[in-house]
Amino acid sequence: LLSIVKAGEFLEDSTAYREAAEAMMVGIESVAELFGDYIELDAGEFATSVYGPTAMTAAVATLHVELALNYPDYNQAHHLQRAGEILDEIHSRVWDEEMSVYRFAPGDTRLMLYPNATVMLALARAYELTGESRYLQRFEATFQGIQGLKDPDGDHYHSPYSAQSMGAEDEDYTTHSSQNYLMLSLLSAYQATDEAEYLVEIDTLLGFLKDRLLVGEQIMHHWMNGRAANEEDRYDYCLGCNVQTLFLLLSIAWLGGV
């Protein structure tokens, strides 16, 4: 759905994509409203249980912001309002002031990357479009909070959401997708602020993907136990994640002169 929504940013005629996205958003919004704008749902599905309710809810906020940004002539005010309501609800439910991070779920005390990277993406896009300071302030505070997940090597962030199920034996575990979402949030922050530090951090993370996870022509699914994922692991490769990295690289190139 996010890829369909973003078509409006890049295609001259994206009417069919907008109409498809709006139709799909009806179901998404029904779920969000049913759960009071924080989708605390465990249906036994991989996404809801592994990525958690904060990340899932942040995705809905991102969809609204992207619809407002990419289709400004169609219900922009509504989508901005809904994005703001959802982001405020996330903040009230799971913001940890002491840790300066968003929690995986209410009452969950683990420091996790996925909920924060996904909320940061929605916050950066919301600030880019509205200029409202609360979005940037929350983004910057969260970015500082996740530094507790940064590996001592300084080139990637730990993302323990699936570490146990994959068989990680130490805390230096991270996934391709989590680094992708973090880089997308940093790129959006750069687009909104022109702060070079965000591009520098993206470059550092891309270096990690190249030096540690790139095997042949494929970026592998995760890093754990001092090695990239291989065929002995539960998962070793994600096509969607590789396409997402390609999109990130193209997005950087489209900025021009960077």
Describe the model.
- The structure is a single chain.
- The protein is mainly alpha-helical and 258 residues long.
- The chain has helices at 2-10, 15-34, 46-70, 76-94, 113-130, 133-145, 163-166, 176-193, 196-213, 239-255; strands at residues 95-96, 101-102, 174-175, 214-215, 218-219, 222-224, 227-228.
- A hairpin with a 2-residue loop joins β4 (214-215) and β5.
The coarse silhouette is globular
Beta content comes to 5-15%
Write down the secondary-structure element order: HHHHEEHHHEHHEEEEH
- The percent range for helix content is 55-70%
User: Would you identify the regions where 5 or more consecutive residues have pLDDT less than 50?
Assistant: none
Mean pLDDT: 94
Rg result = 18 Å
Individual helix count: 10
**First-last Cα distance:** 29 Å
Main sheet: strands, sense, barrel? 3 strands, antiparallel
Strand adjacency order, main sheet = 3-6-7
Instruction: Report the structural category.
Output: mainly alpha
Structural descriptors:
single chain, 258 residues, mainly alpha, three-stranded antiparallel β-sheet, two-stranded antiparallel sheet
Tell me briefly what this model is.
62% of the residues lie in helices and 6% in strands.
Helix and strand topology:
Elements: H1 2-10, H2 15-34, H3 46-70, H4 76-94, E1 95-96, E2 101-102, H5 113-130, H6 133-145, H7 163-166, E3 174-175, H8 176-193, H9 196-213, E4 214-215, E5 218-219, E6 222-224, E7 227-228, H10 239-255
